[in-house]
């Protein structure tokens, strides 16, 4: 599987990781899951991904911090952020950090898949 | 407001934020799982398709109720930037679901001054008013017409948005209670749409007016123009 169609899913809710992974794998993507920002950075050092699909609010290291750390190591990697509750300034911070989009949970799956298809053709 | 009340409001706000966060994550799991089942199950089975659609619909409704509750209880300071009201209205109209029998007419005045506003908040306010207008006409098989107009006040200081429906109007005795949280005349309503819209508009220095007759209802949003 090429790195372009590999997606790192990062969320501290295991069930979200599992269900997103099942959907994306059923559609032919390769996925790896991580439970927080630190774990995500560790994953990036072992494997290359076309996209990070990441929660904004997580323990240890939040999504924006983690994306900064990830881009230091893999500058070209794209990110789509997810959030169950975000203030407008946190959303702006994520977009300024380079995230392609910030999606609210529960996710509009068709919107998410269109975005993923644009990043991981 | 007493110290105890303030402390109670902060605790309630904090509690609701946590509960909302938790419930949205749970709904996200349900939504993802439903999508997975739709991918894997036989879509020619009418009952399966029906139940998947019901699950998706209920997730959407529950999510909207949580969003409304959080908007009412947790008033956020607007994050302002220069915005085009016509763009906000256009975006909200493009997302609006309505029956075929409801005709949508937009008369947006070009070249309006920008407003300094929080896009999400004003977008939510407009969305709430549009949904109310559509719902006012949806129960009639004849449908109706939703007309959305924008313009500039005579003194050039305020931009306005009017959202008009041709529904049966709001009874005169209910008009004074429209902005009371949880007041609703709809069987499935929650009574938070107008208070949310009003709250967002007022925290931008604007105001919201509702005029109604048996021929329909018009909501007018007035928002101050930006300094730039």
Task: Describe the structure concisely for a colleague.
Chain A is an alpha/beta fold and 121 residues long. Helices cover 45% and strands 21% of the residues of chain A.
Structure, described:
The complex is a heterodimer of chains A (121) and B (228). Helices cover 45% and strands 21% of the residues of chain A. With 121 residues, chain A is of the alpha/beta class. Chain A has a single domain, classed as Rossmann fold, CATH 3.40.50. A five-stranded parallel sheet of chain A has the order 2-1-3-4-5, sandwiched between helices. In chain A, helix 4 links the parallel strand 4 (78-83) and strand 5 (101-104). In chain A, helix 2 (37-46) runs parallel beside helix 3. Chain A is globular, with a radius of gyration of 13 Å. Chain A starts with 5 loop residues before the first strand and ends with a helix. In chain A, 43% of the residues are buried. Chain B has 228 residues and is of the alpha+beta class. Chain B folds into two domains: 3-73; 81-224, 2-Layer Sandwich (Heat Shock Protein 90). Chain B is 47% helix and 20% strand. Chain B has five helices and seven strands; from the N terminus they run H-H-E-H-E-E-H-E-E-H-E-E. Chain B has helices spanning 3-40, 46-73, 85-95, 119-138, 193-202; strands spanning 81-83, 102-107, 115-117, 144-152, 158-165, 207-213, 216-224. In chain B, the strands form two sheets. Chain B has a five-stranded mixed sheet with strand order 2-4-5-7-6. A two-stranded antiparallel ribbon of chain B has the order 1-3. In chain B, strand 4 and strand 5 (158-165) form a beta hairpin. The longest helix of chain B is centred in the first third of the chain and has 38 residues, at 3-40. Chain B is globular. Classes of the chains: A alpha/beta (121), B alpha+beta (228). Chains A and B meet through helix 1 and helix 4 of A and helix 1, helix 2 and helix 4 of B.
């Amino acid at each position: 599987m090429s790195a372009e169609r590999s997606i790192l899913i990062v969320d501290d809710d295991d069930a979200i990781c599992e269900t997103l992974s099942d959907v994306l794998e059923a559609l032919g993507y390769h996925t790896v899951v991580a439970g927080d920002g630190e774990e995500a950075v560790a994953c990036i050092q072992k494997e290359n991904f076309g996209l990070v699909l990441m929660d904004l609010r997580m323990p240890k290291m939040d999504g924006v911090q983690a994306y900064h750390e990830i881009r230091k190591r893999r500058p070209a990697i794209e990110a789509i952020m997810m959030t169950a509750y975000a203030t407008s300034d946190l959303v702006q911070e994520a977009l300024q950090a380079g995230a392609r989009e910030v999606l609210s949970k529960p996710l509009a799956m068709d919107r998410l898949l269109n975005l993923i298809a644009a990043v991981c053709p | 407001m007493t110290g105890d009340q303030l402390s109670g409001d902060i605790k309630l706000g904090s509690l609701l934020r946590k509960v909302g966060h938790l419930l949205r994550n749970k709904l996200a799991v349900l939504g993802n799982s439903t999508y997975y089942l739709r991918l894997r199950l036989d879509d020619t089975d009418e009952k399966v398709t029906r139940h998947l659609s019901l699950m998706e619909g209920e997730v959407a409704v529950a999510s909207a109720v949580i969003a409304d509750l959080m908007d009412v209880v947790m008033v956020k300071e607007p994050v302002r930037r220069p915005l085009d009201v016509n763009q906000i209205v256009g975006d909200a109209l493009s997302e609006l679901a309505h029956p075929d029998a409801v005709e949508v007419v937009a008369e947006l005045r070009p070249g309006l001054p920008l407003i300094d506003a929080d896009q999400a908040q004003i977008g939510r306010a407009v969305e709430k008013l549009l949904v109310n207008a559509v719902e006012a006409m949806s129960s009639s098989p004849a449908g109706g017409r939703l007309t959305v107009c924008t313009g500039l006040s005579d003194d050039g200081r305020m931009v306005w948005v009017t959202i008009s429906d041709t529904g049966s109007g709001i009874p005169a005795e209910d008009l004074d209670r429209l902005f009371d949280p949880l007041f609703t005349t709809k069987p499935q309503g929650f009574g938070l749409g107008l208070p949310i819209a009003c709250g967002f508009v007022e925290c931008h220095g604007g105001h919201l007016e509702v005029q109604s007759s048996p021929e329909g209802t018009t909501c007018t949003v007035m928002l101050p123009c930006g300094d730039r």
